User: Fold these one by one.
Assistant:
Number 1:
Amino acid sequence: MSFPHAHLLGIEPLAPGDITAILDLAEEYVALNRSAAKHRDVLAGLTQINMFFEASTRTQASFELAGKRLGADVMNMAMQASSLKKGETLIDTALTLNAMHPDLLVVRHPHSGAVDLLAQKVRCAVLNAGDGRHEHPTQALLDALTIRRAKGRLHRLSIAICGDIAHSRVARSNILLLGKMENRVRLVGPPTLMPAGIAEFGVEVFDDMKAGLEGVDVVMMLRLQRERMDGGFIPSEREYYHRYGLDAEKLAYAKEDAIVMHPGPMNRGVEIDGEIADDINRSVIQDQVEMGVAVRMAAMTLLAEGLRARRAA
């Protein structure tokens, strides 16, 4: 199963066949992760370094577990207390990493483009675990796998992405991926949380939840990212929930078999009603967490195969 990319920095460079290759391999890893023996030696002898310049629970734990289940030597670097705090540049960090000879580098960074810069300077495969407002490719891939398993396909679906679009790298990566796979994408949220020029992405934009959710197959809620807001984007959390929080009344406008998603962490009573989030018949939020480990295992497997091939050439 060939994968023609040295890194996984975003969804934008991927062809539909690349996306399908990752998802198909991830399906195998879903089965492995549900078995008694969850270990393979695919990454045996390779070193994986996780560098999270932003705090993360789900993504970092998921990448760490994925690497260990594939047999890699996994190291987590505490970047919040690192040399960068003492003035070291990202380039100096890359040079230091090169001296350690890692094979896989997983990076989350608060600035868009920082992961791409690192990828240009290090001699290993780099996976983007989220950079600023730019992209979060493995989140979009795990969302895609969750949708494909729930709906039986990943094309010609109507999908509503709702909430804080402007500050969300998850939204950007999902818009790109779902568009490549021929889906109809709607963005729903207040005008203050819509990025300028978003209609150029080939999406429909709504500022009314009921109109935006009318007849959709998938409802993807987003976290309200207050840490990225530097002004009054919403009047209050109570008002936001009233207009844009997902509850039973708003969900009734979607198809009866529509699934509900959220990348986490959730703000219950702000973005989503707790009963909807926990509804085993509609919510696939816990499935998303499970698919995350499998997708990251698949991505690292394909990148490691390419890395070994290039080193052997």
Number 2:
Amino acid sequence: MTYRARHLLGIEPLHPVEIATLLDLADTYVDLNRQAVKQSDALKGLTQINMFFEASTRTQASFELAGKRLGADVMNMAMQASSIKKGETLIDTALTLNAMHPDLLVVRHPHSGAVDLLAQKVNCAVLNAGDGRHEHPTQALLDALTIRRAKGRLHRLNIAICGDIAHSRVARSNILLLGKMENRVRLIGPPTLMPSEVRDLGVEVYDDMREGLTGCDVVMMLRLQKERMDGGFIPSEREYYHRYGLDPEKLAFAKDDAIVMHPGPMNRGVEIDGILADDINRSVIQEQVEMGVAVRMAAMDLLARNLAAARQEGAA
């Protein structure tokens, strides 16, 4: 298998063949997770520490479940009540963790680049579970796996990413991944929620949902990141839903077999119509959650293999 990375800090450094390798392995873990006995010993004897400096339900639960199904000893650190609150620096935290000799470190942090800094200070494999507005690589990978399984391929598709692009690390990681896999990516949203560097991302930009969705194979909605907004980015939630919320009338402009995605948590009636979100013929939102566990299992498995090889090489 071709996957040589020591850490998973973002999509940007990954080659298409590494993405394909990870998704292929994740496919096998989807099959395992659907069996009565869901255990593997890929991480047997290894220690996984989950450090979430930002609150998370889906991602933290998904990583914890993934580690346990692979046989790891999993520890969740409550960072809201940690020494960070007492003034300890991120580097001191990293050094303290390093002394515990973990093998896998899963980190979510509100500041872009913080996870990369931690990775430079520890002797284990680090997985980025989301850092500021920078990246959320496993979300993009699980989205890619969901698309590939629904569409039978992950290239030359028309994919619309809609909503709050400016504040979304999910959007950034997906733009990078889908671009690497030769897809046509469209960003749809109000100008106030588009990043300033949008024209440099190799995408098409629309502020009209109907025009942007025309002929799309995949419609990926995003959560309004209210906690990252410090001004009047939208007139009101009602107006936002009217113009940019996904409903059956707007979806009709996409292809008849277009799939609907959302990374969660959803604001029903703001970003997406609730009935549409639950439509088993169009929505793959629950499949995304299922693929998340499999993708995180695959990522940790591959990184653990590379870590073992590096340690063997160092001991030789």
Number 3:
Amino acid sequence: MGIIELRDVSLSFDEHPILQHLSIDFWEEHIHAVVGPNGAGKSTLAHTIMGLPDYRQHSGDILYDGKSIKHLSVDQRAKQGITLAWQEPARFHGISVEEFIQRAAGKGGGARTVESSLELVGLDPDRYMARDVDATLSGGERKRIELASIVAMEPRVVLMDEPDSGVDIDAIQSIFEVLGKLKQRGTTVIMITHSGEVLKRADHAFLLCSGALVDKGTVDQLSSYFERKCVPCTHKNVPDEEVLL
């Protein structure tokens, strides 16, 4: 049994199917990758698990620790230990980095928690605690600060939408190191990505195409997708055999 289980989940917008009969188990204390081309439904899957308002009118069910969370709000899911790191981290004018991380940590969010969380993501607390979470920060800095807030939150499940988007090599390496430490602490990580480099950091992977689950398995098994840009499947758009060779 997984910590997050999707049971025949389908979701459509304006009668256009986005997710199609997804049944997926995300195992606890693993780093999972959800891969596939643009438009495959990867981000929609993350938003549906998180319970964002526009993504709750789905069929099927989502289980967390074996119990349905289908009717829970975003806040209720967050209180139970599920959080989402956005592809493009939000900007908060007038809110300092220290206050931002303290709010994420809740009652345990003292100065030492903020400092240790920033240090873990490779940012100097003396340089960043007093700064605002706004446009004066680079995309990579905001991504690290968002990750620091997640570290302080101590969630059980982290959904990461394109963790390598908008960051340099040093920043993404730091992010990968933090994800490994989160796993060691017992956190389950679900990475949404179309990057072969990100896939390599996972323990297990799922391949989506047109909102349907095409394949699942080890990183080695699914790496062929990034080598060939497609894998044999039953989808109506499956390429000719000679293309796959």
